[in-house]
Amino acid sequence: MKFTLDTTPVTDRETACLVIGAFDDAPLQGSAASIDRAAGGALQELIKSGDVNTDWKETTLLHGIGGVKAKRILVIGCGEPDKFTSVRFDAVCASAGAFLRDHTTTSAHVCLHEMEVSGTTEHWRLRQAAVALEKANYRYTATKKPKQDDRQPLTEASFNASEELQAALTEASGMARGYLRAMELGNLPPNICNPAYLAETAQQIANDYKNVTLEVLDEEQMTELGMWALLAVGRGSQQGSKLIVLSYRGADEKSRPTVLVGKGITFDSGGLSLKPGPNMEQMKFDMGGAASVIGAFEACADMQLPINVICIVAAAENMPGGNSYRPGDVLTSMSGKTIEVLNTDAEGRLVLCDALTYGQRFNPAALIDVATLTGAAVIALGHHASIVMSKHDDLADELISAGESAVDRGWRLPLWDDYQVQLKSAFADMKNVGGMPAGSITAGCFLSRFTEDQRWAHIDCAGSTWVWGGDKGSTGRPAGLLTQFLIDRV
Ligand code: BES
Ligand code: MN
Ligand code: ZN
Asked: What residue owns the CA closest to ligand 1's atom 13?
């Protein structure tokens, strides 16, 4: 989508659609007030009569409003002014985006960032509005062509703001690119989006940006490194496992990189510890962590942030087969630590432990893994937040505040050593499952054993990365949180 800034007085702006917000029982603000004045109070009248609904997220399309050059005016309800938080603002923008996506108009002039939200800047509101329009505009078309109708996606949005806010649009384009990349990778079926496809996608990104390089380790190279935990997971599959390593150089060589590690299980059948049939198709989203780190990495390259970033994807398919790893197997990880497998469905931590060990060779300033690691994450926080775990309070705080700022929220759970006993094994240094209590935390504790001297955090996005049930698909989360985190590193 093309974004521009345009400070033409809103009543003179020739556009297919002006987009404004209106609160319940409050005077119209900014552009909405100007339009109302030009229209002789018609807008306020329509609100009063109930023809324009100002309830939060409601949309009303108006035609033939006098005194303005715009063909139409789209009014988005903002609800009660004192309840208008950043989260509510974001939903208002999403609502506008969904409406415009499904309407015949292909361009619009947007004034939503004028709506006051306490604790936010105009830069932030403009960025969020632009990102929301892009996200709403996304349609999955790779294996299903849209039916021909007269609804058209938005191709152009201008915002009523001055050139000083150009940086907000640059950020928005980057962040949206990251989200859309993550959404598309998540939505692609597992017979297309396999480990090799993830590597090809990484190659495309490396081709697109001059300061991005790629290295892809195949099974032979991983064998050399002793990545037996990662390799075990992919053994039952016909698809070769891959370790995908993207490097972005935006700063001096001496500047320590942020290293992002993503779980890229392109399909999680559970392996020999086979998952139940119902909903198994949703396990194509088990590369949601990988998708979001690739997305955030691409966003960073798109914005050319002056930092160094490494993105590592542990890509494998977890399948039952004659060569599958088994419950009872003891694996030696790249770190040398041994792991007793009690359940082949706890595969994410196995691919991640080796990828996290590998990531340490880059001397990271921060090491962050992102994974759809546990069903228990959904029990803990539902779909509203990703779980953040870290022994470093400052790093956890940075991630959580990045999530708040991107409206892609995270929430912290503890990583206390008290939970470590649940991983005790009679036959190895640890087992790969910690039992029923605190399933997300014990998964985090497992990973903590491979990141001991690191400034490390773990994000479990099992609840946030796709919309469960139905056919809504990937949310791209937590690409927004991660992108914001990278922006904040500058
Ligand atoms: N990919 C799943 C986690 C998952 C399950 C995410 C359902 C979203 C929805 C992961 O590999 C897994 O299977 N985890 C097991 C761990 C258990 C065997 C200790 C789980 O959560 O049940
Ligand atoms: Mn699993
Ligand atoms: Zn999994």
From this structure: 345
